[in-house]
Amino acid sequence: MKRKKVSLKVNGVSYVLDAKVNSTLVDLLRDEIGLLGTKLGCGEGECGACTVLLNGEAVTSCLVPAIQAEGAEILTIEGLSDGEKLHPIQEAFVEAGAIQCGFCTPGFVMSTLALLKKIPHPSDDEIREALAGNLCRCTGYQKIFEAVRIASEKMASVKGSEI
Amino acid sequence: MKGMNEHKKEKYRIIGERIPYIDAKEKVTGRTRYVTDIKLPGTLVGKALRSPYAHAKILNIDTTEARKVAGVKTIITAKDIDQQKWGPITKDQFILAKDKVRYVGDEVAAVAAMDVDACDEALAKIKVDYEILPAVFSAFEAMQPGAPSVHDGYPNNINQHMVIPDRGDVEEAFRKADFVLEDVYQTHYHYQAYMEPMGGISVWDQNCNLTIYAGIQTPTWSRRDYAVALGIPVDKIQIIQPYYGGSFGAKLSQQVHPLGAVLAKHAVQPVRFVLSRDEDFQCGLPRVPMRIHLKTAWSSDGSFLAKDVYILADNGAYSSYAAAICSTAMYRIDILYKVPVLRSVCDLVYTNKVPTGCYRGFGNAQMHYALETHIDQVGKEIDIDPVELRRKNLAGPNYKNPHGWKLNSCEIQECLNKAIEDSEFVEKKKKFAVSNAKEKSPIKRGIGVAVCVHVSGNRTFIKEFEGAAVLIRLNDQGRPYVYSNEPDMGQGIRTLTSMCVAEVLGFDLEDVQVPDPDTNVVPFGLGIFSSRGSYMVGGATKNSALDLKNKLIKTASKLMHLPEEELFLENKQVVWSKDKKKSLSYQDISWNYICANGGQMMQGIGYFTPPEDVAYPDDKKYGNASGGYGLGCHIAEVEVNTETGQVRVPNIWAIHDVGQPINLLTVEGQIDGGIAQGYGWALMEKMVFNSEGKVRNASFLDYQIPTAGDVPTIHSGVVDSFEWTTGFGSKSVGEAALIAVVPAIGNAIFNATGVRLKEIPMTAEKVLSALQEKKRKEAR
C-alpha cells in the first residue's frame, strides 16, 4: 500500500506520520498515535463513536481520509481534561449517569462540545438534533440529554472552560 | 443455606441512593481499554472468508494464490484443523464449515496476517468451488415435506418440538368458556446493535494453554462450549474479560472466539479477531423470530380461564440458545396472570438464515408482545376496560402458578396504579377520544398500556446449578478487591458490587476495586444473563462482605483483647462500643493478619443460592424458575399521522417493581435503555433478507435504531418493594424494561386509530395499509 507523509496536530502535539493512502483519520489516531479513546463502531460514519473535532468542527474520523488531515488541528477525547481534572462536559456525563458501556461516550462528549461551542444554552430540540448522529444503545439517551443540560450550566458558570 | 432466605428491609447508608457509575471517569476520558483496543505484542489480524451462498456444498477450496500474498502468516480451512461440532445446546456448528455452508456468512476459511490489507487481499484470492443447493428461508416452508434439509438428522428441519405438559383440562376449559379469542402475532429478526462488535484476542503458550481476551457475558461457563469446539480440556482455556461495548444478550458463547483461537494456534502468534459491523449484522446472534398462535378462554366477568399457545420459531442455520429462548417464550409469562389451565407447544425450525440467539427479554419479550396485545383485544371484545381486565387477573404476592413457579414479592398492581396516575392515562384517553373525533387534523392521538414480568436468574437455563459466588480480598493496606464471574457490560455490576461491599463494611466507594474477571482467578460462576445481577450477585456480595466483617471483628478481638460482641465497624475501623477511642483500623488488622498467616490475605467468601423451591424443572417441566420476579407497567402515548402511517411516540412511562433498588441511577439507566430498544423493535427495527438469504440492511444506515432525534421522553420510576429472598431485597429490571413497551405502543396505536397491528415492527407502511384496509371495510 502506498504511503504519504501527513503532518497534523493532535491535542496540541505535532505529529509527522507516514500514512497509508487508504487509511482514515481514526486509523492514524488509534494505530499510529496510540490514542485509543476515539472508538470505531461501524467504519461507515453512521454510529458517531469516532467523532473528533477537526479544526473545531465535529467530524466522524472514520470517514476522513488520513491524507486530508494534513495541516489539521485535531481534538480528541484525550485532549479534553486538564490532567485529572475533568472538563465540565465530562463531569456532567459522569454526574448524570449518561455513561453505561461507554463505547459511544467519547463521541457523544465531542459532539456535545461542538454543540455547546455554537449554542451555549441549547433547547431540548437543539440537543436532540445535535446528537442525532451519535448512536447509543445502552442509555436510551435520556441521561445524555440531562448531561448536556448540566454541562451547559457548568460551562456558563466556569470561566475559561471553553476549549 | 437452607432456610436462610428470609431477609428484612434495613436502614441503608448507600443502598438505594443515586450513585454515579464507578468507572464513568475512566470511560469519559477515553482511558478505558475495550476488547477492540487490546493489542498484545506480535498480534496478527484475523478475518474469515464467508459464504456468499445460503446453502451450498463446498467442492474445493484453493488457497494457493492467497498464500502468496505478502504479510500472510496462516490460512486455514476445515481440512487444516481439528474441530468438533459445538453449540451451547445443540452441537451443530463447526468452527469452519466442513462439506457445506448453511447461511450467507458461514465461515469457510480464515486468514491471519500482519495487517488488515494483507488479510483482505488474501481473502479475495481464496477460490472456493461451491455446488449451490436449494435453500429455505421460512420456518413454515422448512417444515413442509420435501423442503431442503439444513442439517442431517433433523426431519422437517425441526431442531426441537417442545411441549409443556397440559396444566388442567384444556379442551374442557375452552368448551365451557363464555368467550374465546384466537389470533396470530409475528415478530422478526431483531439485531442487538451493541456499539462494539463481537471479537476477541487469542494467544496460546507452549503448553497449549489458551488465553482469550473476550467481550463476553459468560466467561467461565463459555469455556465449556469453546473446549468442545477446539477439542481441548476446559481448564486449558483462560478467559479474561476486559471492558466491552455492550451486549444485550448477544455475547454469550460466540463463534468468533473459537475461530480466533484456532487461527492463533496455527499462526503461533496472538490473533485479534474482531467482526466488522456488516459481519456483525450477518453473523451475530439476533433475536429469534416467532410466529405466535394464541388462543385464550374467558368468563363473561373477565376471568382469564385458559391459554393455549403454539409457537413456530425460526432458528436460523445454527442453534445457539434458541431452544431455551423458545422454552421461555412458551411459559415464562404464566406467572404474570392467574391462569389455571395452560397449554404450550413449540416447533423450533432450522432455516438457511443468520443463526439466532439471546437478546434482552429472551423469548419472553416475543410472548409479551403477543399476549399483552391479545388482552387489549379481549377487553374490547367483552367490553371490559383493558386496565380493569388486567387488574382482575394479575397475580399477587405468594401466588404459585400451575408450573410450580412462585412469586414472592409482587407489587404489579402498584406499578399499574402509579403508571396510570403519572401518565394521566384515564384523562388522556377521554381527551384524545374527543379531540380525535372532533379535529380534522390527520394526527390522531392515543395511549396504551401493558404489563410485564421477568425472572431474576432463570433456574431452567442451566441444569447444574444456580447461584453466584463472590470473593473479597483485603490487601496489606486494608483495601478490598472484589472478584466475581459477573461481567460488567455497561449495566453497572461493578458499581453494584462496590456499593454492596461499601454498605456492609463502611468503605468509601473509591476504596473498592473490582478487577476485570479472569477465569483463572475469579470464583466459578455462570455470568451475567437472565437479569441475575442485582438479585444473585447482590445477595452473594452481601454474604461475602458479612463473612469479611466477621473475620475483621474476630481478628480485632484477639488483637485488642476485647470480646467480639462489644466490637463494631465504623469509619474503616473496628471500634469498642464501650470506649470508641479504642479502635483498630482495617489497615492495621489486615497487616497483622497477613503477618500472622505467612502472607495470606484476609478474605470474605460468600455465595448466594435461590430459595429451596427454585429447582431445575422435572420431566413434567414443573419447578420454580426463579426466586425473584421483577415486574413492570409501561404506558405509551402516540401520535399517528393517518395520511402517512407515521407513528410518533412523545412519551413513555415505565414503572417497575425492582424490589429494593440498589442504585436508583443505574436502575433508571436500565429502564431508559430497555424502553429505547423496545421502542426501536416496536416501530423500526427488522433485519431484512433478500431472495438469496443475504441480509439486505447490514449497516446502521439501512438498519436504523433509535437516535437522540426520535427516542421518546421516558418517565421511569419504581414502586416501594422488597424481595425477602435475597440480601438487599433487590430484583431484576434489565430485561423487563424492554418487554412491555412494545405491546403498549401497539395498544396506543389501536386507541388512536382503531387499527390493530399483529406484526412488528409497526412501520408507517404497515400502519397506513391497515388504516386503508379499515377504511375500505367501513365503506362497504
Question: Keywords, please?
Answer:
heterodimer, A: 163 residues, alpha+beta, DNA polymerase, domain 1, 5 strands, 17% strand, B: 780 residues, Aldehyde Oxidoreductase, domain 4, 20 helices, 25 strands, globular
Written overview of the protein:
The complex is a heterodimer of chains A (163) and B (780). Chain A is 34% helix and 17% strand. By secondary structure, chain A is of the alpha+beta class. Chain A has 2 domains: 3-77, Ubiquitin-like (UB roll); 88-157, DNA polymerase, domain 1 (Orthogonal Bundle), CATH 1.10.150.120. Chain A starts with a strand and ends in a 6-residue tail after the last helix. In chain A, 56% of the residues are buried. The mean pLDDT of chain A is 96. With 780 residues, chain B is of the alpha+beta class. Among the domains of chain B are: 24-32 and 467-608, Aldehyde oxidase/xanthine dehydrogenase, molybdopterin binding domain (Aldehyde Oxidoreductase, domain 4), CATH 3.30.365; 394-459 and 617-779, Aldehyde oxidase/xanthine dehydrogenase, molybdopterin binding domain (Aldehyde Oxidoreductase, domain 4), CATH 3.30.365. Chain B is globular, with a radius of gyration of 27 Å. Classes of the chains: A alpha+beta (163), B alpha+beta (780).
